[in-house]
Amino acid sequence: MSSEINKKYIVHPGGQIQGELRVPGDKSISHRSIMLGSLAEGTTKVTGFLEGEDALATLATFRAMGVDIIGPDKGKVTIHGVGMQGLKAPEKEFYVGNSGTSIRLLSGLLSGQQFDCTLSGDKSLSGRPMKRVTDPLALMGAKIDTKEGKPPLKIHGGSSLKGIDYLLPMASAQVKSCLLLAGMYAEGKTSVTEPAPTRDHTERMLSGMGYAVDVEGSTISITGGGKLTATNIDVPADISSATFFMVAAAIAPGSDITLKHVGINPTRIGVINILKLMGADISLTNEAETGGEPVADIRVRYAPLKGIQIPEDQVPLAIDEFPALFIAAACAEGQTVLTGAEELRVKESDRIQVMADGLQTLGIDAKPTEDGIVIHGGIIGSGEVDSHSDHRIAMSFAIAALQAGGSIQINDCANVATSFPGFVEMASEVGLNIEEIDG
Ligand code: S3P
């Protein structure tokens, strides 16, 4: 994986963001298109697929289980589905690199198979909590060994799963999706109740492929023994990748950027809501629906930002966007306070600590708290920061340079390829003065 050949970014200060961009495809939807397309009956054609390492890791696992998958080629993937019972035992263990979505969703889906398999990942993934999926899966009857609640996961096939009624202890689309995927293989009904709404791409795609999903308030239910019918899936541009340019334009005077065909699923638009509360000038045009997911072009023009108390109900709706939002907070007038976001501590890195460290290095008053951060807007200085192999931290500090007093060096950036291949080229195209160097 990319982290073997590391990369640094050097980003020079100043500039503005101008133009039109279509950022790569949505990571969450790309993963799900491969998983559900593989289990469907018939041929699923995917367009706009994210050719990033995480989604490619999921694709490789299904190929290794005998699914004929053609592509990706410029975002096009053709999946010849094998049906619910058609996966074959892999010859080796699955290595899914940095990808939390792969390991957590696959743990549910693979618990329903007749064969054994093992899922492992890179250093960051090997430190991430898996009990949140293995505990409820065990209640369903799955047998999974972990290393003290962390990867690798050894899944013993041939278990007969039974539906459960489960109250999620945290707002997590990965855990919800894991249980819905296992629920397709379980006897009876599996119900998952969420403490707060999280991204619902799994539910939408299951329904779009003819598998009934019942949603009543915050409870989502599925009954085992159904089937999926192949369909065509148009993956929208990823709002989480678009975020870097939204924040870039929001902080750099004179900016005006339009991000094309971005997924604006209501469970993902916390970043738009939060930036608007901070005073950002954001407008949506060309709103449409594609394959059961809403999309729009998002235009962001520079406007001065002010610090806010971030509403806690927006946290799960912007969960991946906080590193970039912290840069917006650093450029805003006054104080921004985030609470209720302890989940950020168990992402690809501890995003509260790592962002606080980097912001402090650049001269910003940023105080981490147990479940959030307090940031006072100020003048961003130059300096050297570490992304801790976290793609979103690397891209966030890259855009910070637009408002910095000098160059920013960001170390350990190779994992940007997990979610945003071509970031440096696209960022340069719209006005960021960024160099990528090996080392
Ligand atoms: C994802 C869900 C989120 C998010 C991750 C992708 C998904 O994780 O952070 O990048 O595709 O379901 P949690 O559900 O653990 O919050």
Question: How is this structure best described in words?
Answer:
This protein has 439 residues and is an alpha+beta fold. The chain has two domains: 2-24 and 236-438, Enolpyruvate transferase domain (UDP-n-acetylglucosamine1-carboxyvinyl-transferase, Chain), CATH 3.65.10; 27-234, Alpha-beta prism (UDP-n-acetylglucosamine1-carboxyvinyl-transferase, Chain), CATH 3.65.10.10. It has 13 helices and 23 strands. The radius of gyration is 21 Å and the shape is globular. The model has no long low-confidence stretch (mean pLDDT 97). The structure holds shikimate-3-phosphate. Shikimate-3-phosphate binds at residues 28, 101, 172-174, 177, 198-199, 319-320, 343.
Tally of structural domains? 2
What is the CA-CA span between the terminal residues? 15 Å
Low-confidence stretches: none
Strand order of the largest sheet: 21-22-1-23
Largest sheet: 4 strands, mixed
Please state the CA-atom Rg, rounded to the nearest Å: 21 Å
Summarize the structure.
With 439 residues, the chain is an alpha+beta fold. 29% of the residues lie in helices and 28% in strands. It has two domains: 2-24 and 236-438, Alpha-beta prism (UDP-n-acetylglucosamine1-carboxyvinyl-transferase, Chain); 27-234, Alpha-beta prism (UDP-n-acetylglucosamine1-carboxyvinyl-transferase, Chain).
